[in-house]
Amino acid sequence: MGQQDPDPDPLPAQYSRLESLPVEIIQLIFLHCLEVNLPRASPRLSNALASPLLYTWLIRLAFSSTNPSSREGFFTSDFLPPPLDFWALSWEERQKLQTTLLACRWCTFSLFRRCQREYVAHAIRRKCAGLVFHQDDMSLLENLDARFDDVDGCDWAIDGRRGKGDLVLPAQLETDSTPSTSSSRIDRKVAIWFHFGAVQIREPHEVYYENDLFRLPCSVAIRPGRIPDKVLRSPWSDSQFKFLQLLSTDFYLDEDEVSPERSSEITYRLIRKRKIEPFRRLLRMPFRAANCRVPARWPLQSSHYSLVRRYGSGSGDPFVMTILNERWNDIPADAKEDLLRYIEPEGAT
Description:
The protein is α+β, with helices and mostly antiparallel strands.
């Protein structure tokens, strides 16, 4: 037998066939299968898939809203390239993908904020093309970065409900006979919420209806994604709380509003470790459960009232004072009496 020629392109011994593929092919395979655990298979695959652009596409795929107006002319190939198909995902697949992505280390608040800016700009570009704005308003729309950078004065839906918009601009429908923009006629209003990454183009009405919103992030209406553990543990940074504030009213904290096991365990941990600042901030935020669409305040159980007295410092204890100040109307009468007695100065009658 004649000697066979050696393999002209032998695979490196340290790589599998998948790992030896070009980075572009590995990324394409990932976009087809959406197997989020693939980067964890090896350092080579992790490096190949560690792409900010790839992360952006995944966030757009999983967290863009499914409002009616997004069905036509919104998910363009430059915004969400093939093989990604936004409408091909079932609600179960979208919910699972949201939960999985939120738990990833690369999925950060800063990345979400950048995605929100790009999403809002894309919505305005695609859906406001047939509208005419006053020159000053057009200048505002073209320079929104400063508004995204400073959201302290924006709508945070503290009570669980959004207002009419942080920025609301009047517009006219563009026609061959459109008068000058100095006309008082208003055909549409364009509203933007900078904290929520939301845009609405609505007809002018005295009554505001929250419908057909372009939003990112937007949870699945039937079954929301889960708030990740990484924003509900130490070090309890400002960035964690900002991310938590963004997710809290749409993504779920506890599986069951009647049995809030997850939040209760976090509360126990904060009380035992005497972490007053995150405890105080959590009590002021609205959250939702997986089985309830209406946000409610951070749950407190009867056992928590006993625990703060067990681990407290007596008179003026900050945990007891926070509970009394934040939840006065919600505390059972007997627990309220015990807490008030606990913080009485020594020797008081």
